[in-house]
Design a protein that fits this description.
With 254 residues, this protein is of the alpha/beta class. The protein contains 8 helices and 7 strands. It comes from Acinetobacter rongchengensis.
Amino acid sequence: MVSLPILAGKRIFVTGAARGLGRDFAQAIAEAGATVVMADVLTDLVQHEAQLLVDQGLNVSAVSIDLSQKESIQKAVHTAVERLSGLDGLVNCAAIATGVGGSTLMEYDEDLWDRVMTVNVKGTWLVTQACTPYLKASTQGKIVNIASDTALWGAPKLLAYVASKGAIISMTRSMANELGKDNICVNTISPGLTLVEVTEQVPQARHDLYVNGRAIQRQQLPQDLNGTAIYLLSDMASFVTGQNIPVNGGFVFN
């Protein structure tokens, strides 16, 4: 008997998929058998990355999305659902994570605060809202929100980012309670500091803080998160909802 890939037949929409964790999630999910639509505000880059995966034989495509614009979100989701002929899963990975640190709460720029909250929190809500009617039509809809373990230990000088990721964890619980009746599972993954493009600007002292404070003392890589995401999108997680799963090598426990 030949076993199918764990996500065979699943149709998944991934935001923030042009680079970093979102890009890695999209590839891993497609390799697990799903058909994936990759969405990002970096239109040219997400199209390029999708083509690279297509060249590897994976079933992916790309759309442009701007999480600060409701119309853009609705258009991207509509296009994705048309291509996929439905929707089984959503990964909310898009977020502003660059240029958000270094200032104390007394110094923090109000415009930056508003941008972070608009994209990271409001954008996640609006994408989920747009996808929910299609997930309801699926037999086992799944939503995976990407937060951060900074919300669990209160990383300093990252106020808006930490607040936005704490909001993601809280929204997940509320969404899970509302959508459970529709057999939709909603969960959060909270990564630790991970080696991706955006973290190259993080001071070495912060990287060392994480490595030295982990139970498993090494750098975290994007692939360390893939198994958890694939599990939560799969039928094996059909009774798991409202949970926040830190994947950080034991830097902080939930």
